[in-house]
Automatic annotation (TrEMBL):
Enzyme class: isomerase
EC number: 5.2.1.8
GO terms for MF: peptidyl-prolyl cis-trans isomerase activity
Protein name: Peptidylprolyl isomerase
Ranges where the record places region Disordered: 1-33, 54-89, 241-265
Naturally occurring in which organism (per UniProt): Streptomyces amakusaensis
Amino acid sequence: MVSSDQRRRQLAREKFERQHQRRTQSRKRKQRNQVIAAAVAMVLAAAGAAFATGAFSDDGKDKDKVTQAGKASETPAPPTPSEAKSPEPAMSIDKKAAYSMKLTTNRGPVNIAMEASKTPRTVNSFNALAGKGYFDGTKCHRLTTDGIFVLQCGDPKGDGSGGPGYNIPDENLDGLGKPGGDGTVTFPAGTVAMANTSQPNTGGSQFFLVYKETKLPPSYTPFGKMDAASLKAVEKIAKAGVTGGGADGPPKNTVTVEKATVTKG
């Protein structure tokens, strides 16, 4: 028999997954609209250029010029910034070494220990992004306080749709043990894991800090662990709650990552 607490956790997990899917669908709609707008702009630009060069004049040469204008309008639209795919950073870390990431925030430092041997491509990506200042000035945009207990960060857009333009593969998915009968594993308090789009191998720059034991499907790369002081800082943020009084949304106490640094050892 399923207890009320188990049912509540199950509903929270399902809500967490649904929101991931909605954000993904919203991003795809925005990308599609941007592509359509770019294509229309190119058609209008081609038509305007053809008119400016006399392509629609009645001088006996219209046919060839119209054909040329038509070919120009069929040129594929360039990718929009959200579609553009950047290459995953070249491997530049020592896969056998331990690394640490420090997030200097307006709510205090968050120190995360990372093991490159277990999640080399994830650690390498954070090393490259932090080195470029990618996370500096970003906000932790999502706090969940019922069933799922995480603070999510790493999105430069601040709405859950941003990313670095590339995806990294899932790693260490069995690092928290085998799933139980409900298909979940326990993410202990202090765990740091990659967010994704609810599809395999779609990690980018977003990650979440687990401040209280949470059960989730083993679909999120666990790549780090906060120290005790950092966990307390995140617990304090969570205690203040979500903006508007709900259980899922921007934290009431705004969290800004002022600087992110990754160091070896």
